[in-house]
């Protein structure tokens, strides 16, 4: 069974918990760090160090729908 680990981070910047993984320029919320980047084939992803991630909420929704069976909103 695949799982998602969710970490809640405060809105205020700097977001040290995100910076530690993705660098100061990538501290946007939400951010999804991918365990298996191959599952995001065809989606626009970013890289920082050893991490591949998505920090666009529309792309995160698409990734979750494709890989975890979540629904897509009828509008954005």
What does this protein look like?
With 76 residues, the protein is α+β, with helices and mostly antiparallel strands. A three-stranded antiparallel beta sheet has the order 1-3-2. 8% of the residues are buried. The chain has two helices and three strands. The protein is globular, with a radius of gyration of 13 Å. The protein starts with 15 loop residues before the first helix and ends in an 8-residue tail after the last helix. 25% of the residues lie in helices and 12% in strands.
What would the average pLDDT be, to the nearest integer?
92
User: Outline, from the CA principal axes?
Assistant: globular
**Neighbour order of strands in the largest sheet:** 1-3-2
Low-confidence stretches: none
Profile the largest sheet.
3 strands, antiparallel
Q: Beta-strand percentage?
A: 5-15%
- CA-atom Rg in angstroms: 13 Å
- Terminal Cα separation, in Å? 30 Å
- Class by alpha and beta content: alpha+beta
Listing every helix as H and every strand as E from the N terminus to the C terminus, the arrangement reads HEEEH
Could you tell me the number of beta strands?
Answer: 3
- Helical element count? 2
Share in helix? 25-40%
